[in-house]
Amino acid sequence: MREAARLHGYLDWFRFHVTKWNGFREIGNSVPVMLGHTVAAELLKADNITPTRGEFTPLGDEALLPFAATEARTYFELTERVIPQRNRARS
């Protein structure tokens, strides 16, 4: 599996699913980084677009990063769910 990952441009420290089948599926479903970069560059060139850097956006308080949805809702004093609860259909 490591050889396939290297062909796709994954670094050796990258970890995949523990089973070989799922690991190969992860690799097979991914787009190699260099391919994505090359396709994007060609699309920009074909559309005659010159990419520009966006403005710097400060990240804010890093203490908010580990919040679960319910903790964030309490912290920001939201009264209703911004993301609705998922209702699974019973079969």
From TrEMBL:
GO terms for biological process: DNA restriction-modification system; methylation. It holds the Pfam family DNA_methylase. The keyword S-adenosyl-L-methionine applies. Keywords: Methyltransferase, Restriction system, S-adenosyl-L-methionine, Transferase. GO terms for molecular function: methyltransferase activity. The keyword Repeat does not apply. This is Uncharacterized protein. It comes from Actinotignum schaalii FB123-CNA-2.
